[in-house]
Structure formats: structure tokens, C-alpha cells
Design brief:
single chain; alpha/beta; 2 domains; five-stranded mixed β-sheet; two-stranded antiparallel ribbon; 17 helices; 49% helix; 17% strand
């Protein structure tokens, strides 16, 4: 409802400086407390059934019984209010519930900062700096604890039966376990659905990355409803392609080209890495398998003596490197690399890196889930050229894409 100009003029007549309005004891903070108290009084009147000092309350069996002080944490800082009481102690206020010490929405700010990688101490300092509010570690823990149920529901949600593309990768983080800090691998699976939208299918923690645990991940995805994966993109982990084919025999396994290039450049000094990267480009940008093989032969002729391990790596993984060359351009653009999950992993590392380690696996999973949730809010459009790609999928994988 509109606020009368006369009322605003009355409120602002003592405000000469911005601090008078926005400062620690400014008008907005005072108004917050006054409005809350007024609403609490209205709730008490509704509860008792009569106004304050109304004779109708005589002999009603219940009446007002003074007030108690409470401090609320708000975006304007700590606000002191007086909460009315009744003799029967049956009053249950709604706007500020019993034992509530902060407004709804304050938790959201804590969770948002937690999900952006801020530590407990950083959250405390940030809230104090912005709002002048002293927040205890217990309050932060309670706020972030509420996320865990959401994480569990998300990790166990049912999934669509058919996924055209699933991209899998792992990143490393540190977690305290049994008194010592250990490296853990966070397994991440990102899918592209039939409409071309990206969706993170889940995250899992394990001591190290290995094909055996990936089999557990794929089995869980099957149990959650996935019946078919058309193309599975992965890194060059030994045994990983065979693991995928064991779980989803019809899947085409594509090794990530970015991983292949990155692993190849590890064998060379910084001085020649740019030259090597340029020399490798004709291999993965070829139009056909035959052209790619010719480009690999040319690379070996020029660089094979100096860097035999690079040539050996490409040749040993060749049948997992070139599947994308069997598809037309619209599909190649989608499966060419694991760029989608690389971008996701960059977002995860951004929130993980400020923390030297996590106290528990649960804490790590909560932070990663919140980072994923923030990332997915920006995934509003289908993958580029998806309309053309799905048409080709329906031809190459005839009978495996639902007609509806």
C-alpha cells in the first residue's frame, strides 16, 4: 500500500545526514524494531480476542503479562525489541517465533556466502562489516546444516531414462578424516538432456579417482533411472572407457581432446609448448578419421624423436580419441571436449580453494552443492546448435531417442 507523503515528512524531519537514516542507530533500524513490536502487539490482540485495556478481557481467563526483551539480527544490524507475553504462556507469535533470533532471509545470506567458498570466520567478519551484526559460529552451523537435507534429496532424485551426452570428471580436494587431512576425489557427472539443457547428475567423494569407483557411480545412475547414454565423454583415466561400456554397452565413449592435449604438453618444456599445441591441432580438427591419422603421422615425423611419449599416448588411445569424427559438425561441437564440465570444475575450484581443507565430507559436499546450484541458475538456454544436433542423434542412434 502507498505510504502517505505527510507520514514520510514527519519521519524524515529529524534526518539531516545519511547516517541519520542508514547509520547504526538510524531511522531504518528504529523503524524495523517499532514495526515488529507493533505487529507483535497485533498478534497478541488476535490471540486474546480483545484490545489492550479493553474491559472485554475481564474474566476471559487470559491476559497480557508484560514483555520480554529480545535482540534480532537483521540486515540493519542488531535490533532490540520487546515481545509481549500472556499469563497462560500460550502466545505463539508468527512474525518472530519463540527462540528465533534473526529474520527469515538472514539464513539465506549466510548460505549464499558459504556457497561461495567463504569460511566461517570470513562470514562472521563480512556480516559484522556490512550489517554490524555479531554472528556466532553456532548460528552459521545451524543455517548451513539446513542445506544437508536439500543435498541428500538432490543426490537421490530420479533421473530421465535417456541422456544423449554424459560428461564425467573428477577434481581433488582436502578433507580432515581420523585426525589427519587427506586428499579426496570429487566425482562429478554432468548430463545434457534431450532438450539440450545441462544438469549435474550428482557428486560423489572417494579417496582417489579410479575406474572401479566410477563403476559404482554409473551403477547408482542406473538405479536412479538412467537406462541409456548415447555418448559418454571422459578423461584418459586407465580403464575408464571399459567401465562405461560395462555399465552402458551401447554408449559411444569419447576421450576428452582437451585432456589429451594437456597430458601431451606435460612432456615438453614451456618453450616449445605453444609450438606443440599448434602441431597437434590438425589431428583433432581434421574432417575425417583418415585425415586425422595422416595428421598424426605428420606430427610423428616432425616431433616423434624428441617426444615419443606424446605419439605413443595418442596412438594407444586412438580409438577413444576419434569417435567424434564419425559425426557431423553439429554433434562434434557438442562432444568435442568436456568444456562444459571444465567450466563447472573451475567454479567448484573457486569455492574450494579458499579453504585449505574441510572438517568433514558433509561440509565439502554442501559447499559443492551450493556452488553447483548457483551455476545451474545460469544454465537457462539449451546447448548451442542443439536443435541440429538432436536431429542427427535421431539418425545415428535410431530407435534410442524417445519420439515424444
Amino acid at each position: 500500500m502507498p505510504i502517505r507523503k505527510e507520514l514520510l515528512d514527519e519521519l524524515l524531519k529529524e534526518c539531516d545526514r545519511p547516517e541519520d537514516m542508514l547509520g547504526p542507530d538510524g531511522l531504518l533500524k528504529q523503524l524495523t524494531g517499532a514495526l515488529v513490536e507493533r505487529m507483535l502487539e497485533a498478534e497478541m490482540t488476535e490471540h486474546l480476542g480483545y484490545e489492550k485495556n479493553d474491559p472485554a478481557g475481564h474474566g476471559s481467563g487470559n491476559s497480557r503479562n508484560g514483555k520480554s526483551r529480545k535482540t534480532l539480527k537483521t540486515e540493519r544490524g542488531d535490533v532490540g525489541i520487546e515481545v509481549p507475553r500472556d499469563r497462560n504462556a500460550s502466545f505463539e507469535p508468527e512474525i518472530v517465533k519463540k527462540r528465533q533470533t534473526h529474520f527469515d532471509g538472514f539464513d539465506d545470506k549466510i548460505i549464499s556466502m558459504y556457497g561461495r567458498g567463504m569460511t566461517q570466520r570470513e562470514i562472521q567478519g563480512h556480516l559484522h562489516e556490512l550489517y554490524g551484526v555479531e554472528v556466532s559460529p553456532d548460528l552459521i552451523s545451524r543455517a548451513t546444516e539446513s542445506v544437508w537435507e536439500e543435498v541428500q534429496a538432490w543426490r537421490n532424485r530420479p533421473l530421465d531414462p535417456v541422456w544423449p551426452i554424459v560428461i564425467m570428471d573428477a577434481i581433488v580436494l582436502k578433507v580432515r578424516e581420523k585426525g589427519s587431512v587427506r586428499n579426496k576425489s570429487a566425482y562429478v557427472a554432468l548430463g545434457i538432456d534431450l532438450d539440450g539443457h545441462k544438469d549435474v547428475l550428482g557428486i560423489w567423494l572417494q579417496d582417489t579417482e579410479g575406474a572401479k569407483f566410477w563403476l559404482n557411480v554409473l551403477t547408482e545412475l542406473k538405479n536412479r533411472g538412467i537406462q541409456d547414454i548415447l555418448i559418454a565423454c571422459c578423461d584418459g583415466l586407465k580403464g575408464f572407457p571399459e567401465t562405461i561400456e560395462a555399465a552402458f554397452p551401447g554408449a559411444v565413449v569419447q576421450t576428452c581432446i582437451v585432456h589429451m592435449i594437456r597430458n601431451s604438453l606435460r612432456y615438453a618444456s614451456w618453450k616449445v609448448r605453444r609450438q606443440l599445441a599448434s602441431a597437434l591441432r590438425p589431428i583433432y580438427s581434421a574432417e575425417t578419421r583418415e585425415a586425422a591419422e595422416a595428421a598424426l603421422d605428420a606430427f610423428e615425423a616432425e616431433w616423434g624423436k624428441s617426444y615419443p611419449m606424446i605419439v605413443r599416448s595418442w596412438r594407444s588411445n586412438w580409438e577413444r580419441v576419434v569417435p567424434f569424427l564419425d559425426f557431423p559438425a553439429p554433434i562434434r561441437k557438442v562432444i568435442y571436449t568436456t568444456n562444459a564440465i571444465e567450466s563447472l570444475n573451475a567454479s567448484l575450484r573457486k569455492v574450494l580453494s579458499p579453504r585449505r581443507h574441510f572438517p568433514t565430507e558433509e561440509a565439502a559436499l554442501k559447499v559443492m552443492y551450493l556452488a553447483i546450484r548457483n551455476k545451474q541458475k545460469r544454465w537457462t538456454r539449451p546447448v548451442k546448435d542443439w536443435a541440429a544436433a538432436i536431429q542427427h542423434f535421431s539418425v545415428y542412434f535410431e530407435g534410442r531417442i524417445p519420439t515424444n
